[in-house]
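User: Hi! Is it possible to get a structure for several chains at once, not just one? Here's what I have:
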Amino acid sequence: MPLPGLSAALETTRNEPAQARAIALDAARSLGARGGEFNSFITVVRDPAPAVERSSDRLLGCVFSAKDNIDVAGTITTCGSKVFADASPAADDAWIVKTLKNAGAQCIGKNNMHEFALGATGENVAYGTTFNPWDPTRGVGGSSGGSASAVALRQVHLSIGTDSGGSVRLPACFSGVVGFKPTPGVLPMDGVAGAAWTIDCLGLFTANVVDLRTIWSALRPPAMAQRHHQRRIGYLGDDSMGRVAAPVWSHYLAAVDALRRGGMNMTPISLPGLGDCPFIAMTLAYSEIASLSHELLRTKANLFDPRIRGLMCLGEIWSSRHYVDAQRLRAVFRQRFAEIQKPFDTVLTPTVAVQPPRIGVSAHVDGDPPTQGLYTLMRFTVAFNVIGYPAISVPSGLDGDGLPTGVQLVGRPGQDAVLLDVARCVETVLGVTPAAAVASGSKENIVAYRE
Amino acid sequence: MTRELHQAAEVLRRALEAAGLDPGGLDLAELAMIKAETEERIAGHRTDPEFGSAKPVFVPPDGSIDPGGTG
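Assistant: Yes, the chains can be modeled jointly so their relative placement is included. Here is the combined structure:
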């Protein structure tokens, strides 16, 4: 039986709390191994712990999953790597998992991911590539690709991911779902493994902004009345952050026009100087994860994907001066962006510069460094990890090739609820992308790829 | 592979070995390019006018949570 939408599930359990268990069991039991042909899961919890079943719990009836670098008691946290395949199951839930469970939500599994969250394609040698539900010849993005796929397929209402360079927003864009990276520090990272401490953040995937706001209000009850805010949006109107593939740019400009017609106050802006943020993020992430993995790189080197191990090795040998320079640059870029953002409630950019790339094909746009597909994929998202701003990817419909598109909204630090308000206004104009229309023949495409 | 790239890959191999890391199986030429480009792009900002007075920012960045915000 298909999973009912979040609003319907919450309504059902408000009247009949005991229905929450049936909803979660149905959702868990309908998943194939690894979540089905798209490989959205690494571990499925077939018999999730029953919710407390108090009708007062705000998320009773909500079914969720977590990226496999987030602890769920009783399951192994693999970080998408063979390195941890035989680790002991987590003894406790991560803070975010515990908080959701306490609000009545039920966890049905752990999502596939790019190994150690050090990539953005969703290709994983240990647990299989996560395929894009809209076109299985294409990647779903990453690193939280399984989470995006699970929500796009409506296997869960919510998935939790992590985002150190766009790992929530990017796969959300490629999958036609909402991906939200709050202000760093708002959601505690307790129980999240392998994080790049200074830029990593928990993030949330949902089918739409209405669901996201329901969940956010359970996680972060508003402490005060919301401020009045206008809908003044500064939108990136040039290539100051690098070029964008033609079909993506034309669809983005169409979204800008639609928002203007929808009553938003849209002003074109430039964002010069943020284009080097991917290099800052790579410096920080590789160094910090190398520090965490120092022993593993020497005792279990053969268990890593060599591409991932190579990046961690770079983090071992970069100079401390290089690392600190990168941390200092964050202050420079943060101040520059704050000045640009001043007149606006939010800033709008494309979420990603390209359509979802074909599996095995590196993303590239003219002007980007050769061989650095990661740079191309995260160019727009990573800037806001580096400077510590909240950001959200909202679907903007399907492009001419039938692939999902998205726009990124950037809010002000600490004003996450305001950002979600604006995101809802944007969603009202641009519409909600429906559940992934799994093309007939998708299974054949996947089998053909694997062969 | 150009001679320069080959040399950069060899330098990287020696650095990894000196650090006690196994370079076997790694695409050293690609990693050398990533390393060089990343270091160059970061170092290129040392001449930015604001860089001289910039202090490192670690997360949560100081002051990133607006106490008057609506969370």
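The interface with chain A takes residues 12, 15-16, 19-23, 25-27, 30-31, 33-35, 37-39, 41-46, 48, 50-51, 54-61, 63-71 of chain B (CB under 8 Å). The first helix of chain B runs from residue 3 to 18.

User: Great, thank you!
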